[in-house]
Amino acid sequence: MTYPPPFIRQMQALLGAEYADFEAALQTSPPVSIRLNSLRTAGNNAFEHPFAALPQVPWHPGGRYLPERPVFTLDPAFQAGAYYVQEASSMFLYEALRQTVDFSKKLRIMDLCAAPGGKSTLIASMLDPHRDLLVSNEVIRSRVSSLRENIEKWGAPNTAVCSAETTDLAGLEDWFDVVVTDAPCSGEGLFRKDPDATREWSPASVELCSGRQRRILASAVAALAPGGVLVYSTCTYNRDENDLNAAWVVREFDLDPVHLDVPADWNIAATEYGYQFFPHRVQGEGFFIAVFRKKEGPARKHNPASGFKNLKPLAKNQVPELGRWLRPGAELRFFETTSGEIMAFPAALENDYLVLEKHVRTKWFGANIGEFKGKDFIPGHALALHNQVSPELPGIELSREQALLFLKKETFERTPDMQNGWMLARYKGLNLGWMKVLPNRLNNYLPPERRIRMDVNE
Known about the structure:
Helices cover about 25% and strands about 25% of the residues.
């Protein structure tokens, strides 16, 4: 792979004698890493994934390095949300938040540029699912469906997905305790794994990205509560998008840079304002991260909307039926959309969702757990993956071959030992989705858009 001459000159100036090692690293295969889902590996029916025994990513307890890249699509555990495929360097967000955020208090966190969901799912695993709120925003509408799918697959109940321009979030001024801004960038850190990023790079694109990042950062700062934490990251190396933007934040706004305690043997390079990951130093791709704290001061107060525009509380006589589908003590509120979908989210967060209702037009709250048809409850796919689904529900344990057939939305023959009714399709204890056993057949209720289209024999 050859690289643009201006990029080479930039990196030679940045790295000096280290450039030769950097260039050599770019000619190697990128490492493969995943992050385990703690919602699937703790508590009742915990799933013990064989990946758990692999080498750990130093800065994340759930990060693991794989010896080679498998076909993740054909791993039922991946489809069940047991882990997320995430680049190792970007998992450092965990350490940045661990050192700067008080997780013993109620938190509102926004992932401002969230798709496809890597950082949102990482954050979700750090939060109290009944007390804290995670808002995942993605401006580009075509990327929202993958974001929603990955958050649904993760199983956290305390989420909201939004699709708003950063300037549309002005009504949420001073509201979030943490704003994570993984800004769109020129992608220099992805050159090793994405040749398209190399072809699209130019000094002009760096300048364009830097200006766009400043506009995004201005909105992020406005949404941040006094005393709150702003995390800014990119997958690039140049100073324009990294340290110079960080310096701009400190100069233009009432924020202080926060320095982290980073062990020397992690080989992360400290810069003036942040931390830079180079592929010749770490087992990961190019990445930059900086952390800031907003100065203390008075905060704007937010009154919730008087109600949800497109949601009405579920009829009281229908609520008891949902109890048998959920864990005992699940403190959820249930609402019905105009099309009959039942949305569930933590009762303690209702006012927070009403604040979002007031200020954000395009949003999805909590999880779609199903619908009623007459007196019968029809469970939704999101309920199967939800961390509050009852572990006592009947299920059918599938082999890998059967699980892949289920994930291709194939039908199964009913066996004499099967009881009629709804069953969870399970793989090694992980819920994959719903099947319904009828007297003469077994129906597969996997949503058509979630089915695997690959040849399962690959």
